[in-house]
């Protein structure tokens, strides 16, 4: 008789970093996880920026949908590439950075990731509660919804691979049915989208890229349990792209029905058309329940990031503590005001994983990647990361913290480019500088070998 502990259908993440990660997730598991992560309750309101990213040059419907497909493919390819080293090494994202920066230097991005993931987790609990209140009104207090969502989030984090399997078997199907139901209803009711052109196509693509690559810091956390690199990459690119295109496409009609002005003033106004549809409350409840995969992913990523600092601490203990902290923040802090700060911290991860991808795939890193606790410091890799971080703020047009934005304003005005998002600018600079450092390192080694033969 097969014991439950040995059954791959019941295998779970090891309790500490010392345990070997089970390789149980196939392409459908990965695809279902990433498809669900691509569907967000407030993601529907993102159609506002998709349709008019510059504020004065609206896109046609064809241009907006094309930008969604192109941007999603580019962004998810970046996320998929960040997932592959996790599959090949069996290490979560922040532990992978030991191979890039060294063990001690990897603590810096780990702490930043912990801060941002706790913040995003609290924000998701707020979104879930707002979605539930859109259905039930004030009959159930906000705090009750936050605590309930927090408890469910912690339970999913304690059994993360079980949660992914539930998403594949049950939740994804329910979400597809809900989205199709709303699409049929909205297409028959929403006013037609007319006018617009292709002039702001490039910034619209960059906006969609930014939506996708925001998940780069957690890609390896789940991909390390994938059966193959191909399954991890295909699941990310296929699942996330299809769902994000559907989400933003549906958002175009939801925003039209709710009113652009109302959604601009309050992002939760986009919930109205969903609840008002026939059987809308039922299907919107499906989307609200599904939103817990967002809080789950954030809390789980916080847990495994902390394990980079405390590799022998039981992840279940960490998950409970982080779940309590995240829930408390959602209860007492205005999490909507935290978004600008989260954007500032999040800017570090796009150039960082661009550096990782170049070093790992193009400069031979996979043959020497050291993720042990004594991995030596690699100070040179801080250079492309820092320059990519700077490039993000030179090229972005997204406001964050006013005092911080003021620092970069002179450089932005000197560059004067309205067509590139910070995510793409940061990645390009980080890639070019990393390749240059790799070329210098190779040239130095070749020179040393020639000198030794003479």
From TrEMBL:
InterPro entries: CodB, Pur-cyt_permease. It comes from the Bacteria. The keyword Lipid metabolism does not apply. It is a multi-pass membrane protein. It is found in: Membrane. Keywords: Membrane, Transmembrane, Transmembrane helix. The chain crosses the membrane at residues 33-55, 61-84, 105-128, 140-159, 166-184, 204-223, 235-263, 269-289, 317-333, 339-363, 375-394, 419-440. Signal peptide: none annotated. Belongs to the purine-cytosine permease (2.A.39) family. PANTHER family: CYTOSINE PERMEASE, CYTOSINE TRANSPORTER CODB. This is Allantoin permease. It comes from Nonomuraea longicatena.
């Amino acid at each position: 008789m097969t014991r439950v502990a040995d059954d791959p259908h019941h295998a779970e993440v090891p309790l500490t970093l010392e345990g070997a990660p089970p390789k149980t997730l196939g392409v459908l598991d990965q695809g279902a996880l990433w498809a669900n992560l691509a569907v967000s309750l407030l993601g529907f309101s993102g159609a506002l920026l998709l349709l008019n990213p510059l504020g004065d040059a609206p896109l046609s419907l064809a241009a907006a949908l094309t930008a969604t497909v192109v941007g999603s493919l580019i962004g998810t390819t970046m996320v998929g590439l960040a997932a592959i080293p996790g599959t090949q090494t069996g290490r979560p994202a922040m532990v992978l950075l030991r191979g890039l920066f060294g063990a001690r230097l990897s603590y810096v991005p780990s702490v930043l990731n912990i801060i941002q993931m706790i913040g995003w987790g609290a924000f998701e609990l707020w979104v879930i509660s707002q979605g539930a209140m859109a259905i039930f009104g004030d009959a159930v207090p906000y705090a009750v919804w936050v605590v309930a969502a927090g408890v469910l989030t912690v339970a999913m984090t304690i059994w993360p691979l079980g949660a992914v399997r539930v998403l594949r078997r049950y939740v994804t199907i329910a979400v597809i049915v809900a989205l199709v139901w709303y699409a049929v209803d909205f297409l028959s009711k929403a006013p037609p989208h007319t006018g617009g052109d292709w002039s702001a196509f490039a910034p619209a693509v960059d906006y969609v890229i930014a939506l996708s690559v925001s998940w780069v810091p957690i890609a390896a956390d789940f991909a390390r349990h994938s059966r193959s690199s191909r399954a991890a990459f295909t699941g990310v690119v296929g699942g996330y792209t299809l769902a994000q295109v559907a989400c933003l496409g549906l958002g175009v009609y939801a925003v039209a029905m709710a009113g652009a002005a109302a959604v601009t003033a309050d992002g939760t106004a986009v919930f109205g058309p969903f609840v008002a549809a026939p059987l809308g409350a039922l299907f919107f409840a499906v989307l609200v329940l599904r939103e817990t995969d967002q809080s789950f992913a954030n809390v789980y990523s916080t847990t495994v990031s902390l394990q980079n600092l405390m590799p022998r601490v039981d992840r279940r203990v960490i998950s409970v503590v982080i779940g309590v902290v995240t829930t408390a923040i959602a209860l007492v802090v205005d999490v909507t005001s935290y978004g600008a700060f989260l954007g500032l911290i999040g800017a570090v991860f796009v150039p960082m994983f661009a550096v990782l991808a170049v070093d790992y795939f193009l400069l031979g890193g996979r043959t020497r990647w050291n993720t042990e606790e004594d991995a030596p410091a690699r100070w040179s890799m801080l250079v492309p990361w820092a320059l990519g971080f700077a490039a993000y703020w030179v090229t972005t047009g997204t406001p964050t913290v006013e005092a911080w934005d003021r620092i970069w304003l002179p450089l932005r005005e000197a560059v004067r480019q309205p067509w590139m998002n910070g995510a793409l600018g940061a990645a390009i600079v980080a890639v070019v500088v990393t390749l240059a450092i790799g070329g210098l390192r190779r040239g130095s080694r070749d020179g040393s070998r020639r000198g030794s033969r003479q």
